[in-house]
Hints:
Helices cover 39% and strands 19% of the residues. It contains 13 helices and 17 strands. Strand 16 (329-332) and strand 17 form a beta hairpin.
Amino acid sequence: MRILHVHCDPYYPLGLGGSEVANRGVLEMLVRAGFEVEAVCRKYNGHPGAPRTPEQLATWEAEWVAAVRGLGGTVDPSRDRFTLGGVDVHLAADDDALLELFARRVDQRAPDRVLISGYERDPPRLLERVVEACGRRAFHLAHSVMSLPFGPHAWLPSEPERELLARLGGIVACSRYVADYIRRWGQLEATPLYFPAYSTEPLHSLGSPSGHVTFVNPCAMKGLAVFAELARALPAVKLVAVPHWGTGPDDLDILGKLPNVTLGAPSHSPNEFLRGSSVVVMPSLCYEGLGLVPIEAMARGIPVLLSDLGALREASLGVARLLPVNPLAVSRGADGRPIFTAPPQRIEAWALALTQLLADPAAYRAASRAAEERARAFIAAIEIETRAGLCHLLRESE
């Protein structure tokens, strides 16, 4: 069976965001299951917002080629195509080129099934083209309730987009929370399957009560307001913030004014960016579809504190501590685009949970063991359960 995946974001490198990591995991899982898999996506041109001088673009391209080859992939001399993990990836320079490339691959390869995700940056053209070309042969991979076109947490509500989703063969949701949201607010059926988005590098037990507290992707959405208040309330605690896709100059300015916070080094390896951690905090103010970092941390024996929003209750695996936050406020600009504002936060419960965990070695060891055991079992089950469920869904729709 031939599978074609299309989305508006880059396929590689990893670390662009949880949905991109999960997409790659899903496609490589389908390769392992015996499917012939292609992807059509945007070419990687460096971090969004970074200056794009000819010299910088050349450096990024050289680094990208070396990284793909370092993972065992191959790169076409044109740089418009590469293979990685058994997936044949075709690259487009911009949105218009992406639409043309998608149409060309559909005509040339006649895929049996099409998977679409990440169309939200240019709604509804890509989704509309997929529906017109493939109809019930196409399935949506839903990574987030905020990017869906309906319901109370939708950033860009659109009834025409909801109707387009209804014309697909089905929706695969990354968690039970996302599937339930789709059913309730979109009146559409969705199959919940945890995506194989976790690192395949060797797992090491990294948790230590004498380490630092780690916060990945410091930005408003991920709860920088909570983290900053924690830093001010607990000046004796060493904290590390690891910049990621959402971190901008304003966020770095806030972090730079906190004397007990240092910046960690971003890495594609959880073993690297989590090394030295005692606890990982994820005080997200948005409605997460699941959350990769907490499960990666727990699989390495690092206890986690999570905000009690969205699917983070599922990501807690019943062992991470869930704590209250005030969700991100969303308003609309004159152009209809969402504007995000972090409301004031009360962090007493966060400070208490963190200090109690760090002050009690026995409690810390118990939390570390429980986290490691539960997360490793969760990750191992995905390869069996999600693979079986996804293959059944795709083949059953024939």
